[in-house]
Amino acid sequence: MKLEKKSIYILITYLIVYLLPSFLNSSFKLTHAVIFNVQIIDYLVGAIILSFLAFHDMPKNYPEKKSSHAWQIVLWGILGFIIVIILQTIILRLTIQAGENAASQNTNNLLAIVKHYPLYALILIVGAPIMEEIVFRKVLFGNLATLFGFLGPNIAQLLTSLLASTLFAFAHADGHLVLYGAIGLWFCWLYHHTGKIQTSMIAHILMNSLVVLPLLTL
């Protein structure tokens, strides 16, 4: 029951964090500078709160029944990052060959903000990756699979990995559902393989950093 309750608390907190900037902006008509600062604080505080809920007195779920050393977590986090970049490259090339647009308008918009407000990068390389891994991998994949354990561990984890990855793809809302779905499944595997959500967090943070950090050096 504690696993279910804490999972619900995490989802509610994430929803509040996600919607709060839009609510404040619509209520008080904030300037761009103010709303961006609000988002930065909102996401960083949200990441801290979700991390506390996820790691403090949280019962172990199916993936976390495995044990890994710190060096394995870091190693698989880095390998996971390398593989996800290869995966992205392959899928985007196939997208282009299919005659579709490989560009992500959502990503382009976020990077444009970073160019004018460098601190906004904290959202993309710290706040968002940490929260998304806790919500989509730890809760919607790992915890939900445990709650549906009556189906059997393997079937439950297969179904929840597909659900979590589909929701992860739709959450990015830029039309590249196959790409983000594949990334979501790969991050689920990293979490499942090591039993530590920090593994997929490392891969996710490195993936976003590869895109964002070069803009800060221009």
From TrEMBL:
Extract one GO molecular function annotation from the record: endopeptidase activity
Q: Keyword Repressor: yes or no?
A: no
Q: Does the keyword Cytoplasm apply?
A: no
What is one process in the GO biological process aspect for this record? CAAX-box protein maturation
**In which domain of life is the source organism classified?**
Bacteria
Where do transmembrane segments lie in this chain?
7-24, 30-53, 73-96, 116-135, 147-171, 177-194
CAAX prenyl protease 2/Lysostaphin resistance protein A-like domain residues are 118-209
Q: Which UniProt keywords apply?
A: Hydrolase, Membrane, Protease, Transmembrane, Transmembrane helix
- Alphabetical list of InterPro entries matching this protein: CAAX_protease, Rce1/LyrA-like_dom
**Family per UniProt?**
Belongs to the UPF0177 family.
Protein name according to UniProt: Caax family protease
